């Protein structure tokens, strides 16, 4: 008998909350578990989260924070081979602290994560979002997409959206399918459920909750059951509940 499909939102290094959520979920061997990106950064134990997810045998949709560490490790490797190579990134001290805890195997595993996952004819997984009207095989900025220009539909950076919020609209407000899309990235106090999209980043690292959406089937009309655990504490200050994560 087919098992459940379990989707888990952004963990951001919050290993204790992840363990509490897994204790609630009790994944079976017949279940399929997918994390929707951003396992790392901001919380207390990024390496512990990566290794726990690896040991679980779960799938990962690549998040923008995960990708930064993959990219930085590649730059380090190039500089080791070319001493004059200048790394085109200016990482924060926190980023460097996290990066030093990640093994080569951890980073290689993160680097194998797909950007978009098509679970079924009905369901697609992504970290940030999908551009309405663009073919699934040609996603634009799926790692960090959040806002579109209200009139033109152009993807906006967070800085552009913050500078002119009246011109910004969330990509999910314009999504018309054909797939249902589950995503993370955009931390909100509660799950954002629309007819064809499901946002499950509920900001555990900001003192919110860690959320799992449990699907008993992958049909388009499947209704996910939500399982949540509260954060033990906030590890990072959120500038606003729709802001930068």
Please tell me about this protein's structure:
The protein is of the alpha/beta class. The chain has a single domain (5-127, 180-230), classed as Metallo-dependent phosphatases (Purple Acid Phosphatase, chain A, domain 2). It is 26% helix and 19% strand. The chain has 6 helices and 13 strands. The protein has helices spanning 15-25, 46-56, 64-81, 93-101, 104-111, 158-163, and strands at residues 5-8, 32-35, 59-60, 116-118, 123-126, 147-149, 155-156, 168-170, 180-183, 192-193, 197-199, 209-215, 225-230. A 5-stranded mixed beta sheet has the order 3-2-1-12-13, with helices on one face. The chain has a 5-stranded mixed beta sheet with strand order 4-5-9-11-10, with no helix packed on it. A 3-stranded antiparallel beta sheet has the order 7-6-8. Helix 3 (64-81) packs across helix 5 (104-111). The longest helix is centred in the first third of the chain and has 18 residues, at 64-81. The protein is globular. The model has no long low-confidence stretch (mean pLDDT 93).
Please sum up the structure shown:
The protein is built from 6 helices and 13 strands.
What is the topological layout?
Blueprint: E1 5-8, H1 15-25, E2 32-35, H2 46-56, E3 59-60, H3 64-81, H4 93-101, H5 104-111, E4 116-118, E5 123-126, E6 147-149, E7 155-156, H6 158-163, E8 168-170, E9 180-183, E10 192-193, E11 197-199, E12 209-215, E13 225-230
Parallel strand pairs: 1-2, 2-3, 5-9, 9-11
Antiparallel strand pairs: 1-12, 4-5, 6-7, 6-8, 10-11, 12-13
Helix pairs in contact: 3-5
